[in-house]
Design goal:
Elements lengths: L10 H22 L4 H24 L5 H26 L2 H28 L7 H22 L10 H22 L11 H10 L7
């Protein structure tokens, strides 16, 4: 791993580190059960907003760096892991734990895959449009459940049907966005997931690279 240089210390990178620390602090508050549930949930929701803001800032003010390209997706995975592990401990439901396990397994496998590619070739595997959509869906679903349970109305919902459907969709998009890295290339040489291949086949629309 290369040394962190002065040019790597940018506002977006500092915000990325900050949201990782916020997610870990929230996890500590929630798991230890010391009565700061609302504060912990607020930290997680704020970290999600910072995820958008640091990316916007980097593009707007041309502060994208190689370190940020590696650090940002790692911070996303830390945040997502904290959110869904915390929720899994709250629900204590077999189906919810299964969905979370699949989601986190995908994140771990793709992280290792991207790291190995970078170690071998020195190139960074770019996030696809579907991969970015996956993160957005994870944040919306996870953040909504966190808000409902810990802020308003502050209780676990009795009816789990909506949560089940939302988690099922999240799991599907998460897994499918990972399949594009491991499935064979399409006839045009491009990587596509199952969903992207289906859309291309039905509508004749190619998948755009992020």
């Amino acid at each position: 791993m290369r040394r962190i240089e002065r040019r790597d210390i940018t506002v977006p990178n500092v915000l990325t580190v900050l949201r990782m620390l916020m997610a870990l602090a929230a996890a500590f508050l929630l798991i230890t059960g010391n009565g700061h549930r609302t504060l912990a949930a607020s930290l997680l929701l704020s970290a999600m907003l910072l995820d958008y803001f640091d990316g916007w800032y980097a593009r707007k003010f041309h502060q994208t760096t190689s370190l940020g390209a590696h650090l940002d997706p790692f911070a996303d995975k830390v945040m997502i892991a904290v959110i869904f592990i915390t929720l899994s401990l709250q629900f204590r439901s077999l189906w919810f734990t299964f969905f979370v396990s699949v989601i986190l397994a995908r994140e771990l496998v793709i992280t290792i895959y991207r790291w190995r590619v970078h170690e071998k070739s020195g190139s960074l595997v770019p996030a696809s449009l579907l991969g970015k959509a996956k993160t957005v869906v994870q944040c919306i679903v996870g953040g909504s459940i966190i808000f409902y349970i810990y802020i308003y109305p502050g209780s676990i919902p009795e009816n789990h049907q909506v949560i089940f459907i939302a988690m099922l969709v999240t799991m599907f998009i998460t897994v499918d966005s990972g399949l594009r890295y491991v499935l064979p290339n399409c006839s045009d040489g491009k990587k596509r997931s199952v969903m992207e291949r289906f859309i291309q086949h039905v509508f004749g629309v190619g998948a755009r690279e992020a």
